[in-house]
Amino acid sequence: MTFGYNRDGKRGHEQMVIGLLCSKEGCPVGVEVFAGNTKDSSTVPEKINELRSEYGLKDVIFVGDRGMVTQCVAEKIKGMEGLRTISALTHPEIFALVERKVISPDLFDEKEIVEVLDPENPARRYCLCRNPKSAARETATRLRLLECTREGLDKIANSDRRAQERTIGARVGRVLQKYKMGKFVRWEVGRGRLTWSFDEQKIAAEALFDGCHIIHSEVAREKMAAAEVVASYKSLELVERAFRNLKTVQLEVRPVYHKTDDRIRSHVFLCTLAYYLQWHANVRLQSFFAADGTHKNRQSTMRNVIERLCAIRRERHVMAGVEFEKITTPQADQQEILDALGVKLQPFS
Fold it and tell me: Mean of the pLDDT values across residues 148-160?
């Protein structure tokens, strides 16, 4: 492990980078550990070439999120023969298309995927989607951050103490940095006072794209329809779910208490192997979970299942001078779980 960028904002801790390879269903099939200061721009091209070489792949479709397929990564993998990518545009990239008049807000639909080709690069496809739930969440988040920004700037503007322009500017900068709403704020300092206002036109323009996202790809239409391109990108959620399960649900790949590289890799491998077993168990338990209700009415979870199975014990008994071992008789719910898993307990002879 070594020091590097920490996505959780924790400083002073060594860390590692884990590369997890999953099937299209989300089943983990491979894992690799990198140093904590490893960047995606160096691992992505290298691993793509490694996979192509090891499995003899001629055509590869690489699906990565916005943080994975950055401009730097895109430049490095550009021109690799037989490689096509699927990713999502960032908000600045979406607005750049608007400025070029490639797209407009009215093209986004909640029910249908609208496909647009880039006039400067016809091989580049843009699949426009809109999610109403995401739209409501993004709107609420922006309103909350704007209100926090308003409170912070009003506190500075209404202060009875006069201050130098540099001091006031620094205070304004801290507020805008904290809530990330600087693009909507117009402000100036004169005679030791702050005057400011929101740019309502920019706010309204941003609101038009709430819940909107664009999946882009160079995969030909003959190979993948727009719906398949979007579904492939959404399948990244299965990989994210795998990472969440590695961090929780009693697997707890972190914190890592080992110091040598071999022990760290072994620790990660065992956690991934445990998740592999958990993934297959979850597939077999779908009928068990389905019979247990949904949402708030559902009582059983994978954590509950593991806890109930842990309650089955192997006990040592002594009877009439004879020592023997016996597995406790499963209760009704435990036996139901074992039946769903296809596991039969073998008695000790």
Answer: 92
